[in-house]
Amino acid sequence: MNENPNITGTQFCLDGKTVEVFPAPGVRLSQVLREELGARDVKIGCNAGDCGACTVLLDGAPICACLTPAQQVAGRNVETIAGLYKTDNTTQALAERFQDMGAAQCGICTPGMMVSAVALLRENPTPNVRQVQDALGGVLCRCTGYRKIIDAVVGTAPVARDDAGIVGDPIRHIDALNKVSGAQTFGDDIAPMGTLEIFVIRSPHARAAFQLGDVDAFVVNTNGVEATLSAIDIPGRNLFGVIPQFVDQPVFAEAEARFRGEAVAAIIGTPEAIRNFNPATFPVTWTKLDAVTDVTSAQAAGAGQLHADRTRNVMCGGFVACGDPDAAFANADVTVEGQYNSGFVEHAYIEPEAGFAQMDGDRVEIHACTQAPVMDLDALEAILAMDRKKIRIIPTAVGGGFGSKLDISVQPFLALATLKTGRPVRLNYTRTESMQSSTKRHPSDIRLKIGATKDGKISGFSFYGEFDTGAYASWGPTVANRVPIHASGPYQIPDYRAESKGIYTNNPPAGAFRGFGVPQSAIAQECLFDELAAKLEMDPLDFRILNALKNNVPTVCGQVFSQGVGIGECLESLRPAWDSERKTATAFNVANTTLKRGVGIAAGWYGCGNTSLPNPSTIKSGIWADGTVVLHQGAMDIGQGANTVISQIFATALGISTKLLKIVGPDTDVTPDAGKTSASRQTYVSGNAARLSGEALRASILEKMNVANDATLTFDLGVVRATDITGTYEFDLASLNSDAEGFVFRAEETYDPPTKPLDENGQGIPYAQFGYAAHLVVVEVDTAFGTVKPIKFVAAHDVGKAINPMLVEGQVHGGIAQGLGMALMEEYIPGRTENLHDYLIPTIGDIPPIETIIIEEPDAHGPYGAKGLGEHVLIPTAPCILNAIHDAVGVRITKVPATPARVRAAIKANA
Ligand code: FES
């Protein structure tokens, strides 16, 4: 409705219907589509034209709705993914191909990708790869690695099969349809239009004292502002954190802000008041203080201490030692040493943190994107000082997480705001706000020395790494603990010492990011392995295979696996490509002077689940009286495919098709805790809980029916049938009493990995299983400009058992894309790269073809032998790229990202 007589109506055609809106000049089309016309299928990732998530068609051409003033579409035709999916044959066919290729993971980029692809396909029904890359180049995806999207648009033969969906079947993501049709609702898609909004006041300085002024007067004097929030509004503990001994981050800073972007207060107001709010009018005064922004100055005598209970800003450390590395170095025929550095890496999920909250009687209900709903509940219980029974967490779909959405973000602001106002509220971080305040990959400063005897065996390994954990601990202690366990790589190293430290600085908190510090340590270890092989005049692949960990050989923690160690096979599987690609590169280099090609390899391993700590998952399932098979699946699917994989495992254990399952997702009121989606644990840990639940459910049904254990089960309206060699038997489910949840049969089972604590030397059983990986890459280096272009990847992964091979490939592609970004372009610098045009992530044109080799060395603990995969996939990527650069041009890059400037400088210095 037009309330302003100076604003005239804008009529346009939206998905075939004429609509009229009254936007003020300059109001974004995306705003009008989402908040006035309800087109929440148009996603917002940046509001700056960088990510392309909001792409719609305007008169058939793709445009960013966030950059287009709504008044400019008067009289024109706007199409969105939801409308196209309903009526357009090209879109419907493309949606099928997206599902058949696994081209939508989290799905937040999918509307923009598909809309852009539809525009291309209307003009050119048979595009080639280059044409697809050009047409979709304006849309970013952080999950898929793009290759499956390209395959879907080009029309490559489907990967998914219409199978029953038991273990091993490459079925579609079971939740893919919502993603390709625009129906998926993420954190900012839940709130009704007109809901009160929150604006968070944040520190403009890395370190600053501050004082809030008269906020009551501010509320009274500011139209549309209903209330403010600050530390005094927190009824419970103004602290949160994920590791019990390191709960050190305030919801709202008190007196001093410790990093740029830290929250100090918030205002709650109408959408219009929030949209027009000028932060300069908020009553806060800042006094900038000296900040420590690197680990060296943070540990210097006299440096400002971020937390009074720590010395020289050292948060904590980790340590693993075995044998006698000093004696081994003395016996070594060759040694190598080096210092390797990496910077902050931003998660850059396309969905900024977002959510909605409302009161339900005296209960508070939070709908937000998260990787850990029960941890969110734990945190809110302490912050709100409320009985946890009065808090309900209902996660929305998650538009990418990669570790950062393990930490709370919008949740306490939403809860406090709805409690204070009694009204529904919403909060959607801006891209800059997300990048300023969310956790990052830890910058690292690593010194490493490795020795070897002339027969090629490693003789001595000494690692020391400092990790910048920023202003607060977050998952820093986990990084400090994990790195010394993993810094060896998947190799036999009898004489070993690894020490790590997490250091507080006035930088944004560093936390969990796909690998928990292992990708950083792998860079140093795998690059020095190449140096060592060169000194020994050994082939780098042979050197790795010679030293690869094997069954019945202790790890550096003294853990001995009698089965399941698949790194040797991963490495061996690269040999054909290693031999052929090096020949091709040699021939290329003979024929070219400015462009040089190189081939690199690297390996990695990763322990699945928490380090030497309990991390149980519980899965509940049951049968309703009408024959419905219900699976309460509480493992957050953040695009990786937990909904699909857990369902396949459960269906296999029960002995039915996944198509028969009714999935009930995470909800702290009704679905048991399947733990956090982190540490590559869901396939392994929640998968085992699902297997146990399926097996228990099956056993109770067979027992009731008194039929053989190998009987085939089928469910029909109100009956279950069991068929064994003696015949088919039918059981009337209505003859049983239903419980409070309607179940006539039910099974709730828990699995917790068998680990043991580490002693003071890091000896013990940190993980029940590891997964293994080896990558090969061919790169082309432009020696004149220092640019590095990956040409091809071959990635071998030991996943124990591929529960769904298509999803395995999807994880591999996505991990490689993130590893490539870390290696070549990504570096977050507070105050300088707080958006997606200054902070670069790989685009569709940056990812070369990826050949995925699936190795299945079964693990005795894994469900049907399966191992976790999520983190493993980017651990070898960056070092194999650095090794390939060295192979191409003979320079060793020791600081990532290997930007053109750094590569060119190294080439010049080496000339
Ligand atoms: Fe593309 Fe997640 S599927 S951003």
Automatic annotation (TrEMBL):
Using the record's annotation, list all stretches that form the 2Fe-2S ferredoxin-type domain: 1-84
This entry's Gene Ontology molecular function terms read: 2 iron, 2 sulfur cluster binding; iron ion binding; oxidoreductase activity
Q: Which InterPro entries match?
A: 2Fe-2S-bd, 2Fe-2S-bd_dom_sf, 2Fe-2S_ferredoxin-like_sf, 2Fe-2S_ferredoxin-type, 2Fe2S_fd_BS, Ald_Oxase/Xan_DH_a/b, Ald_Oxase/Xan_DH_a/b_sf, Ald_Oxase/xanthine_DH-like
Q: Which SUPFAM superfamilies match?
A: 2Fe-2S ferredoxin-like, CO dehydrogenase ISP C-domain like, CO dehydrogenase molybdoprotein N-domain-like, Molybdenum cofactor-binding domain
List the CDD domains hit by this protein, alphabetically. fer2
What keywords is this UniProt entry annotated with?
A: Iron, Metal-binding, Oxidoreductase
Q: Where are the transmembrane segments?
A: none
Give the family this protein belongs to, as stated in its UniProt record: Belongs to the xanthine dehydrogenase family.
What is the recorded name of this protein? Molybdenum hydroxylase family protein
In which organism is this protein found? Octadecabacter antarcticus 307
